[in-house]
Write a structure and sequence with these properties.
With about 80 residues, this protein is mainly α. It has one domain. Helices cover about 90% and strands about 0% of the residues. The protein contains two helices and no strands.
């Protein structure tokens, strides 16, 4: 039984390294192109997210300032 488990462990060990040691099928230029493409997609997603957050924040802040100005004008008019 001990020999079978050792043999099984050895077989799994060899398979692990042969599976990981197959190498990349992409050349450096193709890999760089893929990385640049993925980077561009992530940057566009980040830019879209940041633009949306900025627009939301700006809308809230503009409404707050406009409301403050309106309230100040209304208080001045009533005085």
């Amino acid at each position: 039984m001990k020999k079978i488990s050792i043999a099984l462990f050895a077989a799994m060990f060899v398979l692990q390294f042969t599976a990981c040691n197959q190498g990349s099928t992409m050349d450096t230029a193709a890999m760089d192109k893929k990385i640049d493409s993925l980077k561009q997609v992530k940057l566009e997603e980040l830019q879209t997210t940041m633009d949306k957050e900025c627009q939301d924040r700006m809308s809230k802040e503009v409404m707050t300032v406009a409301d403050s100005i309106y309230q100040a004008m209304k208080a001045e008019k009533n005085s």
